[in-house]
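User: Reviewer 2 asked us to show a designed sequence for the structure in our supplementary figure. I'm pasting the structure tokens here. Could you produce the per-position amino acids so we can include them in the response letter?
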């Protein structure tokens, strides 16, 4: 600890400034705003195909099943 206290104040200041500049460089971000980040994120996900609509046949199958059940019950009780 004594060697640090006896160190040249100018050298200590330069060392601290270099450490601060190094720390700032490690946290650099590619995007200046959140909107830019979200736009890039959505573009990347679209490129991966995450937002592609898949065709689901479940609603049609459920409708046909309910229609057949109603039609069968009408014929049964008529």
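Assistant: Here is a per-position design you can include in the supplement:
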């Amino acid at each position: 600890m004594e060697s640090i206290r006896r160190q040249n104040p100018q050298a200590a200041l330069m060392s601290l400034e270099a450490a601060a500049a190094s720390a700032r460089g490690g946290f650099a971000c590619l995007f200046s705003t959140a909107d830019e980040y979200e736009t890039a994120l959505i573009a990347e996900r679209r490129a991966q195909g995450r937002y592609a609509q898949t065709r689901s046949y479940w609603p049609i199958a459920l409708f046909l099943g309910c229609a057949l059940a109603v039609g069968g019950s009408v014929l049964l009780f008529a």
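For the response letter, you might also mention the following. The two ends are 100 Å apart (CA to CA). The mean pLDDT is 83.
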